[in-house]
Amino acid sequence: MSLAEVLDVRPGEAASMVLHRVTVLDPAAAIDGVHDVVVRDGRIAELAAPGEGEVDGAEVIEAEGLHAFPAFFDPHVHLRTPGHEHKEDVETGTRAAAAGGYCGILAMANTEPPVSTAADITALREQARAAASVPVGFLATVTRDMKGEDLTEMVELREVGAVGFSDDGLPIGSARVMLRALQYQRLCGGTIALHEEDPELSGAGVMHEGPVSAGLGLAGVPSVSESTMIARDAALAAYEEARIHVQHLSAAESVEVVRAAKAAGVKISAEVSPHHLCLTDEEVRSLDPHRFKMNPPIREERDRQALIEGLRDGTVECIATDHAPHQPEEKDVPFEQAAFGVIGLETAFAALHTELVLPGVIDLGLLVERMGGGAEPFDLPRPTLAPGAEANVVLCDLGAEWTVGEDGYESRSANSWCAGRTLTGRVLVTVAAGQVAFRLRSFSLGVAA
Ligand SMILES: [Zn+2]
Ligand SMILES: [Zn+2]
């Protein structure tokens, strides 16, 4: 099974290229060394001895000192179509993904209207086949129009290709509705991805509840708003022997709940976002909603450390950007009134490389492994550099420094939490589903053989 077989992408020319003397790292496949990576007709043909890889007529990239990884997979992206194409659409969102080194993404269903019918899924899949530069999978909502009441036609939605289900943007407030959804999920498959939050506890909160929110006089969202809902849903999933995926973990208590549920045998997976791994609520003192207002909110240092520990010990199996484009008019307002969310596809790897790998907090191998870990919770194939696989490759210069936003964004929106930061590590080329999906404009080392 390849990503091109199960997700949708614009058809194009199959890539053939050789990455000469590149440092290859694919921890999940136990590949670590200097090789010639030979891509032929869109597949990994071989990992040859350095200097010995040949493909007649293929492009040869002199890649000594550069790194090749399996391209990344993001299970949590907002493409904003239908309804908010002024923020993002399939074309710009997948271009942003390709620029970030991704070979596959999953699009959330909280659009306008929400993706709740078979016709909605079918229309989006057609759009992806016309305009997506990397494979996209679409989730449908769990409840009709995200009202939290009636379930969507989950069986039918699966039949037309919904990868999974999520009311992301909102929690599923009713435990009874959640239980019914899990019963259907057992019947038709498709992981249910959950935005976990208790609306009663979150109230009108706009940031993490703690000393900083108290000092600023802003309403806070307590950590237990998230962790108590995860505990509820883990218990329901255990009861139904169904499967759940917890989105954007943000609190130390939440990591504890997921860890305990896993230990008890519950079928539960979890993701964490780069901004929760790199930032704390101290940033909110700037009152800059462009970079620091998101839901769930960035929390305290103890939460950040717990998320990193969860990433290390496997409680959290994947990194997801929760790429959430917004236009300036929704952000150029006082912090309390601004829209929640930041973009992240183009900066996820570089930000985590800069903030966590270079200071020695986590290994490069762990980062690469977790950046590709978002496919498996949805029963999709993990990108790999193993010979024979569909070519999903990202070529990176780990020493390259760049300032985020300086050359603009591929995304239609610019609300990056990294805006203005200088990051170390840059994506040069992305091959997704066997096609060249991205090439950095300033990177022209490639020569035709
Ligand atoms: Zn969410
Ligand atoms: Zn989201």
Helix vs. strand class: alpha/beta
Distance between the termini: 31 Å
Question: What Rg do the Cα atoms give?
Answer: 21 Å
Largest sheet: 9 strands, mixed
Pick out the low-confidence regions. Answer: none
Count of individual beta strands: 19
The helical percent reads 25-40%
Q: What's the tally of helices?
A: 15
Using the alpha-carbon principal axes, give the shape.
globular
Strand fraction equals 15-25%
Ligand catalogue: zinc ion
Mean pLDDT, to the nearest integer, reads: 96
Topology of this structure?
Blueprint: H1 3-6, E1 17-26, E2 31-40, E3 43-48, E4 59-62, E5 67-70, E6 72-77, H2 90-99, E7 102-107, H3 118-131, E8 136-140, H4 154-159, E9 164-166, H5 175-188, E10 191-194, H6 199-202, E11 207-208, H7 211-216, E12 220-221, H8 223-240, E13 243-246, H9 252-263, E14 267-272, H10 274-278, H11 289-292, H12 301-313, E15 318-319, H13 328-331, H14 348-357, H15 364-371, E16 393-403, E17 422-432, E18 435-439, E19 447-448
Parallel strand pairs: 1-4, 1-5, 6-7, 7-8, 8-9, 9-10, 10-13, 11-12, 13-14, 14-15
Antiparallel strand pairs: 1-2, 2-3, 4-19, 5-16, 16-17, 17-18
Helix pairs in contact: 5-8, 8-9, 9-12, 14-15
Question: Would you kindly provide a brief summary of this structure?
Answer:
By secondary structure, the chain is of the alpha/beta class. It is built from 15 helices and 19 strands. Bound molecules: zinc ion (2 copies).
Task: Considering the chains and any ligands shown, give keywords for the structure.
23% strand, nine-stranded mixed beta sheet, 449 residues, alpha/beta, globular, 15 helices, eight-stranded parallel beta sheet
